[in-house]
Amino acid sequence: MDSEISVAVKWGAQLFPVELDGTATVGELKERIFSLTEVKPRRQKLMFTGKKASAVHDDTVLSTLGLKPDHKVMMIGSLESDIELITAENITRSQANVVDDLDFDYLAESGVGVPNLNKVESTRIKLERRIAEIDIRIINPLRDGKKLLVLDLDYTLFDCKGAASSVMELARPGLHEFLAAVYPFYEIVIWSQTSWRWLEAKITELGMLLNPNYRIAFVLDRTSMFTVTSKRNNTLVSHEVKALELIWRRFPGRFHAGNTVHVDDLSRNFALNPRCGLKISAYKNAHLAIHVDRELYALKEYLVLIAEREPDFNSIQHKGWKAYLAANGAEGASSSRRSTIQQGNDRLE
């Protein structure tokens, strides 16, 4: 009889010790996890520390993976109850934790107080505290030589308040085509102003977590944000920000201002890194907008174009991304298509 295998399954803040017979498979491990968490096996994505995702399947025998005692396994997955709440028509603003009040155009007024935010002592203290506290959990291994694309979720990639029978019906038109097209050039990160619980459920139901045509590198939730105070129109305003330095400091030499684009429907989230910000129109009223919204189709072309043409993103203004695309898109279109084809051997790990 094969000796027992012990693993430590981490799900959010919870840790579950699991022991199985050495002949057990990954699928059987998922069944045991289901008994402990009530997350159905088909909703689970398991990441074994130090093991490539491509080498692990439901029928893989655990003893063949060379696991050490109490080997760490990260599980991403959502409860059915959470998914039902998200797809319900009466989901409330408080449940989703999405702040949707007056936005401030930091891109338009980049010279009014915004650059100084990085020099404000209280801001630096908060930033350093977040950097020390943040736990970036890599979902898929990072690839060498890729740029960084940070994407907001609510109202950027899907209509988080729309009424529909499933979350997929609320996805912005062209969502998966967009992500598949930019993946050969960028590591994709989702940063949402919601709790981890809701973020995990949303990206799972949108089909983004296990899509065969692209991979999400990691996700960040609202706990990675903090509040700053800036002066807008002679009025002091407090609001949360997404500080890209959190990522840059975590991966020195890999990501920086010159190779990062942050796409969001709220430009106040760019307050500490306005030059990296690209404001996209909010996707709302999906039942009507689905017939006319083409934002991701154009954004896909722009992001591929600058990845090919611009060695340093600091040299361009993302605020004028549509004008840049109009001026350079026709010239770069064939090049983009050729490059995308050539990138076809950039296999998913």
UniProtKB/TrEMBL annotation:
<dbReference type="InterPro" id="IPR029071">
    <property type="entry name" value="Ubiquitin-like_domsf"/>
</dbReference>
<protein>
    <recommendedName>
        <fullName>protein-serine/threonine phosphatase</fullName>
        <ecNumber>3.1.3.16</ecNumber>
    </recommendedName>
</protein>
<dbReference type="InterPro" id="IPR000626">
    <property type="entry name" value="Ubiquitin-like_dom"/>
</dbReference>
<keyword id="KW-0904">Protein phosphatase</keyword>
<dbReference type="Pfam" id="PF03031">
    <property type="entry name" value="NIF"/>
</dbReference>
<dbReference type="InterPro" id="IPR011943">
    <property type="entry name" value="HAD-SF_hydro_IIID"/>
</dbReference>
<dbReference type="GO" id="GO:0046872">
    <property type="term" value="F:metal ion binding"/>
</dbReference>
<dbReference type="InterPro" id="IPR036412">
    <property type="entry name" value="HAD-like_sf"/>
</dbReference>
<feature type="domain" description="FCP1 homology">
    <location>
        <begin position="142"/>
        <end position="306"/>
    </location>
</feature>
<keyword id="KW-0378">Hydrolase</keyword>
<dbReference type="InterPro" id="IPR051658">
    <property type="entry name" value="UBLCP1"/>
</dbReference>
<dbReference type="GO" id="GO:0090364">
    <property type="term" value="P:regulation of proteasome assembly"/>
</dbReference>
<dbReference type="InterPro" id="IPR023214">
    <property type="entry name" value="HAD_sf"/>
</dbReference>
<dbReference type="GO" id="GO:0005634">
    <property type="term" value="C:nucleus"/>
</dbReference>
<dbReference type="InterPro" id="IPR004274">
    <property type="entry name" value="FCP1_dom"/>
</dbReference>
<dbReference type="GO" id="GO:0004722">
    <property type="term" value="F:protein serine/threonine phosphatase activity"/>
</dbReference>
<keyword id="KW-0460">Magnesium</keyword>
<dbReference type="Pfam" id="PF00240">
    <property type="entry name" value="ubiquitin"/>
</dbReference>
<feature type="domain" description="Ubiquitin-like">
    <location>
        <begin position="3"/>
        <end position="82"/>
    </location>
</feature>
<keyword id="KW-0479">Metal-binding</keyword>
<keyword id="KW-0539">Nucleus</keyword>
